[in-house]
Structure prediction request, 110 residues.
Amino acid sequence: MSDLSRLDLLRFLERVQKQDLARTRRWIQEEQQRARAEAQRAAAPKAEPKTWRAYVPADARQTVELHRVECRIEHPELDTREITATEARKLREMGAEMSCQQCQASEAAP
Prediction:
């Protein structure tokens, strides 16, 4: 049969099981770290979605135009930036114009 005694085989089995247990404990630690990281991400404040588009003319004397992101009106000649409702509200206070009837009628207009 084998030169290894039953005791040698049991000690070998014990070493293998210790390695398995150590690996399982590492997996548990990794999963706990992932769960903590996910909980932190879920608790973090969410960024406000960018639901408006500001068309900024090169000439500072011209008025910034605001449109909803889903609006089909395009102004490729103007610098375009997607902005949040809060940013759109601030631009309105500074004189930016709602540029089309569709965007003006939006309930979510800033």
User: Anything to note?
Assistant: Residues 52-104 form one domain.
